[in-house]
Specification:
heterodimer; A: mainly alpha; 4 helices; B: mainly alpha; Four Helix Bundle (Hemerythrin (Met), subunit A); 7 helices; disordered N terminus
Chain lengths: ~110, ~200
Amino acid sequence: MEPHAAAAAPAAHGAAHASVRTYVNVAIVLAIVTAVEVTTLYVPGIPKSLLVTSLLLMSALKFFLVVGFFMHLRYDANVMRTLFVGPLLIAILIILALMALFSAYILLPRPTL
Amino acid sequence: MADHAIPHAVHDPNIGTTGLDNRKMGMWIFLGSDCMFFGSLIGTYLAYKGKSLSGPTPYEVFNIPLTSYSAALLLASSLTMVLALAALEHNRVRTAALWLLATALMGLHFVLNQVYEFYTFATHEGLRLGTSLFGSSFFVLTGFHGAHVTGGVIWLLLIVSLAMRGKLDRRDYTKVEVAGLYWHFVDIVWIAIFTIIYLIP
């Protein structure tokens, strides 16, 4: 039993990861950022470009906190990072390409005829 | 005992020539491809945004408080998932099973919220899959995400049932970690959908 258990333990694969305290701290930050995101919507007078930029930045922060700490990518092998980040960049390019293809804009006003 | 440990560890069939676990690597490859899948759906939603000729607009139908609650549920379930993994690492199987059950129940709650949202859109707001470009792109994107969450809930419940039958211990760490990777992925996809679809005006 024990040798098998040793083989299955995360340390045997060189995949150290965060402590429970770190997980809880990350969850608290995620909760605060989400609350700020939703509250931002109800603040009057924020320019749309600033609102969109801040929402996207807060979303990106939450995304990378989950991927880095909860999915352990921060502590994992480089090859795992490449396997995820590469397709993620392609996905972002797909979104931008589709938006360009259909003249869809978020930050910029729609062109008027 | 130590003499047996080394050959066993070396011949672990799940460790490939890279020295990494094949199951984890397979899951990361799948998640990478799923990123592109959701990227296409989000891109399509944004491309069609504001181009519907009929039907209600997103801001006439969205229930931001309910969706925020759903987002909080998924974020909380990500925490319980890592706590389950941490408990299993120390062979506290019962604690791990309870955290996994909590994760699955929060996922189930998320799915039920989504079913309620879809039902409300269809019956009270007159928004269905074929109503408009907004309807089709919205339902396909969030529906596929909901299907992913449902799959994750079933997977987690299967692991809980293994734990209840005494068939789970710390040797199964990587199996649970791989399920966790999938679960966190549905969480990060929702982080993107919540901001891009629901919050950005």
